[in-house]
From TrEMBL:
It comes from Enterococcus ureasiticus. This is F5/8 type C domain-containing protein. SUPFAM superfamilies: Galactose-binding domain-like, PKD domain. One of its GO terms (cellular component) is cytosol. InterPro entries: ENGase (IPR032979), FA58C (IPR000421), Galactose-bd-like_sf (IPR008979), Ig-like_fold (IPR013783), PKD_dom (IPR000601), PKD_dom_sf (IPR035986), TIM_ENGase (IPR005201). PROSITE patterns: FA58C_3. It holds the Pfam family Glyco_hydro_85. Residues 760-908 form the F5/8 type C domain. The keyword Protease does not apply. Keywords: Signal. Residues 1-33 form the signal peptide.
Length: 916
């Protein structure tokens, strides 16, 4: 796979862009075993977990030991949404192919490991919605430090399946330069005594247990010929045993000799991983980006009696997106049709490199990448020298093939959650599990005369979920705007109805195209006002009875000539009828994670047959009312950040049918017990511990969330007593001072005393506080390792934020600094990845600093946990030391690579300041 020039801020040998990138690709020593240990609260009997459920990421040996029954996170990674049936819509422009397909290889989650299983409070996630152009999604992930066998998270599978798109997980064997190990491949393809492939059986078990649709095998580790042959046999084994709905996708990388030699084509060398005689080895092949011409690949597929559209020519858009050298037009033949199918690598560029996690930029980039600059799939103005958008050459598909059909235009993230037009939960969120089927066409709008409406996804208001479609622009009185929303293939009866919920439109007509009819059918409806300005319009579908609807759209009118803002909140089609929804039973709390002493995240599970059930809503009983807390399509769910208001709380889970109706009588309730409230914890920090007379310092207290008051006493300070989590004070006299702080809550008080913590010196004492790391005598020659000579330990001590120490090969990186002689130390400052221009996600999270006078006996003086900042300061009570050990207990927010741009050891270049 091709490599790109890297900026100096990255670990030179840690990161590869393109398929060898993975998601935070890291070195690691042999790490195989994963534990799923938990503790049990003695009061409630509920298991305690250190974190909320996370998506799975394994190595070969941990895959072999994986069992969904013993993995407590497994139930939360399941998708229970079946794969919807899809059909093609009508061609929106003459260039669209009805045969070629699109494979999206997207980094759907920011990290390989540490991804919450069911979403969270971060709005800026890759909540992809242009499913109408994608035929298969590869949930791309993999890291030699975090896991190389990575199934898709259940929320991604839910949203894809609802839109009719199969999802496959990733098996990623990295190149050796990026942590790949040939023994991983050898373990993967090893047979048991009966001639079976245990790893293949485990892959099938996992895809069946989690509900996704197969595997993408990306083998880029050089191995021997025997292992390469075993890999092909492994794939044939998978083919023979996988269900019909599963697929195996091969990446053009390794060849039969075992060498990694990207061919950039289907040819005689790599054809054996695609087809072996009459036996299908892989269902699809992703052709590496090196392809120059595709005619020979198409011809080779025909020779093998395979559909050429099972081949996907790769276009790498990870770094440059719509400015990439290759365009969708690059795959076209002389007849204007695609020679093979299209494979997009990292279209998540729209959010990452191209959007920098800005949601407004994300939606604009999505329009450019998938549609075109005009935001209309009918437009063909873009020349072939520019990015034309995927819609130019690939026809739209739709899962609207049966009734009832319901959409709230909910994309699965937002700034708040709404229910029936009323805001029921504040705060940003992402929950891709409940993403709706979004419009097939983005956007097909026809404005009469001077109407100027344009459409966009909006988080400003919603009917259900977190978003709606907002149309804005000038409208002329009684002139209509038509918006085509969905392609469909639905046969209706005389008793079927449709409803549309809008805000800001005086008149909304339903417009249906019918199979075999040249003119669309326009149906007027009956309006009914709802809460908060929303209006429901109901239509009888009797005029379309016994006919097949092929598209669904709306005509919008206003009575006044003025600027308009119209929101589309819901579309529902199908006869309103009673449906027997399965009851919920055995609602239990399967685990908890303590966020702080007033906040817990709660794991829930319930049993149900799930008949006629679209989702489940979870409520908390508060003052006799039901307070919305979450929604899922799964039967296991984690309620995040539940606030303690008493010793217990009652929760209800209510099933929701496919018409969006709650069946409260079929729900279940259970009482949850919070951890017993204890006296508060308190730690004391100072901005500086070595200060001059008259200098102002800040004392701060890290306390439990339940803390009501914090009081301070520092005898000899001005002032001597104060209250609050942060106070400022100074000293009129030189000396050594003790700090006392007391935290109190409803349970009691906790006192913390730091004896002889603050050293105050006279301004004429000649004391100079400086960064001792840059002294000529300071060296660094010991540590866990570094990537290369340009990223060794010494660059953490040079005072230059353009250089760094980087170690991507250790579980817990560490380094030792030697000042050359004893010095007086008052604190430290660390500059992490973000300080050097890299992602704050790579900032060190947890670290310790220890000191020694002889390099043998060590005393830990700093234990810093939960850091997210680009730089962090730690003041300590004065010590004399020569050696300093920095131990990164958690080198990133989720990963294991050390990135320290500067480590300042703050103190005085002398001893004797500390008095006995």
């Amino acid at each position: 796979m091709k490599r790109k020039t890297l900026k100096s801020v990255f670990c030179y040998s840690a990161t590869v862009l393109a398929l060898t990138f993975g998601a935070n690709l890291l070195f690691t020593p042999n790490v195989y075993a994963e534990s799923y240990e938990s503790r049990t609260n003695k009061d409630s009997g509920i298991p305690l977990f250190d974190q909320v459920p996370e998506s799975t990421a394994l190595f070969p040996e941990t895959l072999l030991n994986w069992n969904p029954k013993s993995d407590p996170d497994a139930p939360f990674n399941v998708s229970k949404v079946p794969l919807s049936t899809r059909v093609q819509g009508k061609k929106m422009n003459l260039d669209q192919s009805t045969e070629a397909k699109v494979l999206s290889i997207a980094i759907v989650n920011q990290h390989t490991k540490g991804t919450p299983s069911q979403g969270g409070t971060d709005k800026a996630v890759y909540n992809f919605t242009n499913w109408q152009y994608v035929d298969t999604l590869v949930a791309w992930a993999g890291s030699s430090g975090e896991g190389i066998i990575v199934p898709p998270s259940g929320d991604v599978t839910d949203s894809a399946h609802r839109n009719g798109v199969p999802v496959v997980g990733t098996v990623f064997f990295p190149p050796e330069a990026y942590g790949g190990k040939s023994e991983w491949v050898e373990q993967f393809v090893q047979k048991d005594r009966k001639g079976n492939f245990p790893m293949a059986d485990k892959l099938l078990e996992m895809s069946s247990s989690y509900g996704f649709d197969g595997w993408f095998i990306n083998q880029e580790t050089n191995v021997n010929e025997q292992t390469a042959s075993a890999m092909k046999e492994f794939m044939l084994y998978l083919q023979a045993r996988k269900p019909k709905n599963q697929q195996v996708i091969w990446y053009d990388s390794m060849i039969p000799s075992g060498n990694v030699a990207w061919q950039g084509a289907l040819n005689d060398t790599n054809q054996g991983y695609f087809q072996e005689g009459k036996k299908r080895v892989s269902d699809k092949m992703f052709i590496d980006f090196r392809w120059q011409g595709l005619v020979s690949s198409r011809e080779k597929a025909a020779q093998l009696k395979r559909d050429p559209y099972d081949l996907f020519a790769g276009i790498d858009v990870q770094a440059n997106g719509v400015n990439s050298r290759r365009k969708p037009s690059s795959i076209m033949g002389t007849d204007g049709n695609p020679l093979v199918s299209l494979g997009l690598y990292c279209p998540d560029w729209t959010l990452r490199d191209g959007g920098q996690y800005d949601i407004d930029r994300y939606w604009e980039n999505e329009k450019l990448l998938w549609i075109n600059p005009q935001g209309d799939p009918r437009a063909v103005e873009s020349p072939k020298t520019e990015w034309q958008g995927v819609s130019r050459y690939y026809v739209e598909k739709t899962p609207v093939t049966s009734l009832p059909f319901l959409t709230n235009f909910n994309v699965g993230n937002g700034d708040a959650i709404y229910k029936n037009g009323t805001k029921v939960k504040e705060g940003t969120f992402n929950n891709r599990s409940i993403q709706d089927v979004m419009p097939t066409y983005r956007w097909v709008i026809d404005n009469d005369e001077e109407n100027q409406l344009e459409a966009a996804i909006s988080y400003e208001d919603a009917f259900n979920g977190g978003s709606s479609i907002k149309l804005t622009g000038q409208m002329t009185a009684d002139k209509q705007t038509f918006i085509k929303l969905y392609a469909a293939q639905v046969k209706v009866t005389a008793s079927d109805t449709a409803t549309v919920v809008t805000k800001g439109a005086d008149e909304t007509s339903l417009v249906l195209e019918l199979k075999g009819k040249e003119q669309p059918l326009t149906i007027q409806g009956t309006q009914r006002p709802l809460e908060n300005g929303w209006v429901e319009t109901t239509y009888s579908l009797k005029p379309a009875a016994c006919q097949t609807i092929t598209t669904v759209g709306l005509n919008l009118k206003n009575a006044q000539t003025e600027a308009a803002s119209i929101y589309l909140g819901q579309l529902r089609m199908g006869k309103e009828k009673a449906t027997p929804v399965s009851a919920i039973s055995n609602l239990t709390f399967s685990g908890k994670t303590i966020v702080d002493d007033l906040t817990e995240s709660i794991r829930m599970h319930w049993d149900t047959k799930g008949k006629n059930t679209a989702s489940y809503r979870i409520y908390r009983e508060v003052d006799g009312q039901l307070q919305f807390e979450g929604e899922t399509a799964n039967t296991s769910y984690t309620l995040l950040n539940q606030e303690r208001t008493g010793d217990t709380a009652t929760y209800q889970v209510i099933p929701v049918d496919h018409y969006g109706r709650e069946e409260q009588r079929k729900g279940a309730a259970a009482v949850y017990t919070f951890e017993a409230l204890k006296k508060p914890e308190i730690t004391i920090n100072a901005s500086n511990t070595l200060i001059s007379v008259g200098e102002t310092i800040t004392l701060s207290a890290d306390v439990s969330k339940s803390t009501d008051t914090v009081s301070w006493e520092v005898v000899g300070a001005t002032p001597e007593s104060a209250s609050g989590k942060e106070v400022s004070l100074s000293f009129a006299k030189a000396g050594i001072y003790t700090v006392k702080a007391i935290a109190a809550n409803a349970t009691g008080e906790t006192e913390n005393i730091k004896e002889n913590y603050l050293h105050v010196y006279d301004q004429n004492a000649g004391i100079k506080i400086e960064n001792l790391s840059t002294l000529p005598t300071t060296t660094a020659t010991q540590g866990s390792g570094y990537t290369n000579d340009r990223e060794s330990y010494r660059f953490a001590l040079d005072g230059n934020l353009n250089t760094k120490w980087c170690d991507n090969g250790s579980e817990k990186p560490w380094m030792i600094a030697d000042l050359g002689a004893l010095k007086t130390i008052s604190g430290f400052e660390l500059f992490h990845a973000g300080a050097g221009g890299e992602s704050p996600e790579w900032n060190t999270r947890d670290y310790d600093i220890s000191v020694s006078s002889d390099g043998n006996d060590w005393t830990t003086v700093v234990q810093h946990r939960g850091n997210t900042a680009n730089s962090s300061k730690d003041a300590i009570g004065l010590v004399e030391a020569r050696y300093f050990k920095l131990s990164l207990e958690k080198a990133e927010q989720n990963g294991k690579t050390a990135r320290i741009y500067d480590w300042q050891i703050i103190g005085v270049n002398q001893t004797g300041i500390i008095k006995p």
